[in-house]
Design a protein that fits this description.
- The longest helix has 17 residues.
- The chain has a 7-stranded mixed β-sheet with strand order 3-2-1-4-5-7-6, sandwiched between helices.
- The chain has a single domain, classed as Rossmann fold, CATH 3.40.50.150.
- The protein is an alpha/beta fold and about 170 residues long.
């Protein structure tokens, strides 16, 4: 399994998506994470967004059966412009730096989108990371940003992938 598939499989395992959940994926790329989430849904729905029309087209093709079944919707949109059909239970993103680098703009949108008890999960796997100290420091940096924007930390999780681990920070408003 390549790093991209591993990071998505691991990330979706951390989400604990329930069959009826409403999920928003920010930066869906080719739709790998969307496929994994949709496999867990029975009555729930995934909205996946990306700024790139090419990525949304690829994700839609990959997930055609989920779209036709009404489990998934893909949209070319920036997070601050997405239109949701009500609140979501989970917002997640893999390798989307805007959630911590542009937090003043993005995190209020996430907070408004989440249903009571909902969670934000931020996953990242930069290829240059090799040591546990860098991973832990990054996780704490993201957690600090989320705390400063009114989120309470559920946890920092590290997936041991050789040679490049992946880190996830999960928080709730």
């Amino acid at each position: 399994m390549g790093d991209a598939a591993y990071r998505h499989v691991w990330a979706v395992e951390q989400l604990a998506v329930g069959p009826g959940d409403r999920v928003l994926e920010v930066g869906c790329g080719h739709g790998v994470g969307a496929s994994l989430v949709c496999e867990r849904l029975e009555g729930g729905r995934l909205t996946a967004i990306d700024r790139s029309a090419a990525m949304v087209a690829a994700a839609t093709r990959r997930n055609r059966a989920h779209v036709e079944a009404g489990r998934a919707r893909f949209e070319v949109a920036a997070l601050e412009r997405v239109e949701l059909d009500g609140e979501v239970d989970t917002v997640f993103a893999v390798n989307v730096a805007a959630l911590w680098r542009d937090a003043d703009r993005t995190l209020p949108v996430v907070r408004d989108a989440l249903a009571p008890g909902g969670a934000l999960a931020v996953f990242h796997q930069p290829p240059w990371w090799r040591d546990a100290d860098a991973i832990a420091a990054f996780g704490e940096e993201v957690a600090g940003t989320l705390r400063r924007h009114g989120f309470e930390l559920d946890g920092i999780h590290v997936g041991d992938r050789d040679p490049v681990p992946v880190v996830g920070v999960i928080a709730r408003p």
